Amino acid sequence: DAGITQSPRHKVTETGTPVTLRCHQTENHRYMYWYRQDPGHGLRLIHYSYGVKDTDKGEVSDGYSVSRSKTEDFLLTLESATSSQTSVYFCAIQRALHPEQYFGPGTRLTVT
Amino acid sequence: KQEVTQIPAALSVPEGENLVLNCSFTDSAIYNLQWFRQDPGKGLTSLLLIQSSQREQTSGRLNASLDKSSGRSTLYIAASQPGDSATYLCAVRSSGSDYKLSFGAGTTVTVRA
Predict the structure, then answer these.
(1) Which residues of A fall within a CB distance of 8 Å from B89?
(2) What percent of chain B shows pLDDT beyond 70?
């Protein structure tokens, strides 16, 4: 257990509304990641963070923004949700000096 | 851009049979390769990680091999059990990638009792 929680775990929202997903870690890890998982695509990286206020884009970042004002929290915001953003969102952390990445339980988001 | 492929997408075997899951990647400049298990509606659980300098890694009934030059990894699960039914994902960390992972789409395994 890498001490990662995600909230909410499930959310249904309407097209055009902003949505924020939260990833919280308890172990003070520097690197945090947001992925989305869709059938047939595996997991794809949206954004990642390598420290407080230090973030960068992944391969599918359009329509998403992130913020990290504290080490323990990494927020993912869908600025104006679209149906194509219906997905399962996973947060992950990377422990320093450890090669493995650890994942949270996921958030299932449905945009109607 | 690193592309990771897992074939087949689904596999069904009788209990007791050995499982062989394949993962291929296009860029051999990798730091490591990680195998994950995912149960329906759940997150990912790390099974094995192979560093680029290693040829294989073992944990209990699981054995993962890596042939970096040919861009392939294989996960072997010996004497499969119904509890092994899950989706298995491989992920590659490319060199210079800031710990970012590139994932395959997974192989969904069903072990029949």
Answers:
(1) 42-43
(2) 98
Place of tokens 């109607």: A112
Q: Does B91 touch chain A (CB under 8 A)?
A: yes
Token representation of residue B65: 């091999």
Number of H-type helices and E-type strands within chain B = 0, 11
pLDDT 10s digits, B17-72: 999 999 999 999 999 999 999 999 889 999 999 999 999 999 999 999 999 999 99
What are the backbone dihedrals phi and psi of residue A83, each rounded to the nearest 5 degrees, phi first? -60, -30
pLDDT at A66 over 80: yes
What does the angle CA B59 – CA B55 – CA B108 come to, to the nearest 5 degrees?
Answer: 55
Q: Does A16 touch chain B (CB under 8 A)?
A: no
Cβ count near B52 (within 10 Å): 15
Distance between CA B3 and CA A108 in Å, rounded? 25
Asked whether the beta carbons of B64 and B76 are under 8 A apart, the reply is yes
